[in-house]
Amino acid sequence: MAKTFGFESTADEVLEGVDLSGKRVLVTGVSAGLGVETARALVAHGATVVGTARDLNKARRSLAQAFPQKADNSPVELVEADLASLASVRKAASELLARAKPFDVIIANAGVMACPQGKTKDGFETQFGTNHLGHFVLVNKLVPLLNRGGRIVTLSSAGHRISDVDIEDPNFERTEYQPFTAYGRSKTANILYAVALDAKLKGRGVRATSLHPGGIQTELGRHLTPQLIEQMQARWRSSSGESTLRFKNVPQGSATSVWSGFVAPADAVGGRYSEDCHVCQVNDDAVSRAGVRSYALDSARADALWRKSEEMVGERFPL
Predict the structure, then answer these.
(1) Is CB count within 10 Å lower at the N or C end of the chain?
(2) Once rounded to an integer, what is the mean pLDDT over residues 33-62?
């Protein structure tokens, strides 16, 4: 009988009894929080992990804490990649392609949240550019390295319910900038990217999926001002005025990533969105805190975003 996991499950509990020996995994954002814990759990269960980070020294310090017995020789191989710079992303992809070592799973974990209005090094709105376009280029370039049966796991968020993508104005050139609106757009883009990627790759035995890891108090929230925290809490208040927002710890926050990548049936998660280690149903109730919005799973919308993303990064990916 298959085990059932939920809100409180941890990555180690999800992977209990799972032997990942021989599996090679790429995890982006291994300098803090979920990226470090995801890498730790995967290594603990036998996987070989390659991690990317913008700041390699910070990643080394974080990984030394995660692997205290191996502090001087971390089991995680590091590659520098700043998702807010396409030059950095392309350099990292070129390094990995040159090594020609295949991957079984890619976990697109890195990201930023609700930051002040700004631009990436390529002139894109910071959250859309970092959370979506950086991964769009990196993952697409690494697709040739994926083994048949491989998976691409993209971390999105329940924040996708805040806003659909705006394909006509992705950089807020004609729209008033709101930190959470920008975050919602980028997280919807993460889901739509997985939808398009899954459709393009499932014929060769590779599946793509997206997920909400849960509300976790990590460095991701470093830009949250008291005003933004109040806005976030307001979105999660019930009709009685009580907050329904529940936080997970980091091991719990990593659970759905490893569940989606290694435990859930590929056909169940391919092209879908999950949270709390289960696939979510479509729910367009504007006041509901559950499910996934239909606009985030719309295949035509996913194709349109793909074309717009290629236009923005100046590169085609005929996968």
Answers:
(1) N
(2) 97
